[in-house]
Structure formats: C-alpha cells, structure tokens
Amino acid sequence: MTITVAITGASGVQYGVRLLEVLNQLGVDTQLVVTKSGQELIGIETQYSLNYVTSLVNRTYDEMDLAAPIASGSHISNGMVVIPCSVKTLGSIAHGISSNLVTRAADVCLKEHRKLILVVRETPLSGIHLSNMLKLSQFGAVIVPASPGFYTRPTTIEELIEVLVARVLDLLQLDHTVSRRWGD
Length: 184
Ligand SMILES: Cc1cc2nc3c(=O)[nH]c(=O)nc-3n(C[C@H](O)[C@H](O)[C@H](O)COP(=O)(O)O)c2cc1C
Prior knowledge:
The chain is α/β, with parallel strands linked by helices. The chain has one domain: Flavin prenyltransferase-like (Rossmann fold), CATH 3.40.50.1950. It is built from 7 helices and 6 strands; from the N terminus they run βαβααββααβαβα. α1 packs across α7 (about 155-170), α4 (about 85-95) packs across α5 (about 100-110) and α4 packs across α6. The longest helix is centred in the C-terminal third of the chain and has 15 residues, at about 155-170. It is globular. The structure holds flavin mononucleotide.
C-alpha cells in the first residue's frame, strides 16, 4: 500500500506528523509533500525539524516538482491525505488549479477516482470555504474537518490529536490501535 501525504500551511501540522509516525510504524509506504507554508507552520507550532518529519516517509517531493511521479495518473497510489489542508489548497483543488504538487496530486486522485482525504482547518468558515468543501465532497473527496471528538475524554493534546488521526486511518482502511473506539 502506498499513501501520499501532504502537509500544508494550516494550523494543526501536528495531525500530519502524527499520521506519518503511525503510517511509519504500520510499515505503510509513504510519499510526502510539505508546502512552504507547511514548513513554516511546523517551525511555528511544533518542536519537530523538517528532517525529522521527512525521516518518517519513504519519499519526499518538493512542492514545485511537477515532474514527480505523484503528478501523473500512471503512478499508482492508494490515495492521498492532505493534513492539515489550508483553505487556499482546498480552493485550488476545488477549482482544478494544479499549480503545485499538492494540488496536482490531489487533482490526479480525483480524476483517477482514488481516495482523497482533506483534513480542512479554518474557523470560522466562509460561504466560499463551505461551497468548496461541498463541491469536492460531491466529486468524491472526503472532507474531515480538523475537529476531534471529546467522547474518549482525552486528557492530553497528544490524545486529542490521535482521536482525529484514528478517523483518518479508518478512512484509509488500515488496521490500527490508535485512540479508543466508542464502546470499547
Ligand atoms: C501561524 C499561521 C496559521 C495559519 N493557520 C491557517 C489555518 O488554520 N487555516 C488556513 O487555511 N490557513 C492558515 N494560515 C494561512 C496559510 O498558511 C496561507 O493561506 C498559505 O498561503 C497556505 O498555503 P499552502 O496551502 O500552499 O500551504 C496560517 C498562517 C500562519 C502563518
């Protein structure tokens, strides 16, 4: 199984890093794009170095490398997660504007009918954001608002992050033991 992960410049890059850690532990083949703003947010919001984040994956591509394999539908992958997904990237994908590798790879997922999961983070949401989310949902993307549930009573930020990451892993149909399920 090969999963493409993109980290963009929305708040909550911790979600992306934790997802990569778990995918690494599960032995999933991963390829990563971190936008310039995503790199800035990793520096602002976390203690992680970019080197640490890229050490978690099998391949990393530059945001502007539109010749990377994931820019082509002929490259097979099992899906893509944009986590977190800024409303800028959301809007670009919703309008088919493939100006960087994240939006191009997402566009490829849509045209090839592969799984595309967008962990959108912004608040409040404008009508434009909502309309872009509705449009992408209608065209097959899965919209996962970065809003973890509290029913497992998380007591740390790490647990809260895992509540959301667990839902993404479920959507990727991966067996995992991250976070608690309701009823367990
Ligand atoms: C500290 C900080 C927090 C930000 N948080 C968000 C956010 O939560 N959601 C969002 O859509 N944009 C946020 N932005 C703005 C994006 O980084 C900006 O729109 C950027 O152009 C997104 O580019 P990208 O999608 O190519 O990474 C934030 C910017 C900064 C500096």
